[in-house]
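Annex B.
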Amino acid sequence: MIRRTAARAVLAAAVTVSLVACGDDGRQDEAARSAPETSTTEESTTTEASAAACETRPSTAEPAAGISTDLGVAPEVPPSDAPPPCGLVVSDIVVGTGAEATEGSTVALKYVGAFYETGEEFDSSWSRGSDETLPVTVGEGRVIPGFEQAIAGMKVGGRRLVTIPSDLGYGERGQGPIPGGATLTFVLDLVEVSP
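Peptidyl-prolyl cis-trans isomerase: predicted structure tokens.
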């Protein structure tokens, strides 16, 4: 029993470290301050063009059709033919009835992360065992912003489909197998909430 608990603690620490490594460490702001003025102008033009494109695109992702409601089974994320959304999109597949995740609470999640366009999985707690969960303290800022924002308001027993644009994910620099500018889809299962 002690070995199993220790193994879970090591796994949770490894996952947390990998997600923490993806968080904002302030270097982006420092780089922006030291960049030449022409770079800033080009970036502004790109941002304005992106904002204009966002206004003409639908603000919601495809519905959660095809994702299992069975919380005992790892969900599969289908690919999407729709243009990626401009903002965070959250859709409850199963509405939980237990304790609610709020600012400051620590939650235990099962998750599958995939690329929005292809549905190709890049990470999953399920691949490490059906009992493995990821601990996250809501509001602590140790995971990507879109992931953390998507947890807030979830209730234990819920399954949620989340589409995260790159600016709320890993940004233009990417991380590990995730390229810069990638829109991501997660399916989150809320297993436990602790105050």
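The domain at 2-194 is CATH 3.10.50.40 (Chitinase A; domain 3). Residues 3 and 119 are 35 Å apart (CA to CA). Further annotation is deferred to the next reporting cycle.
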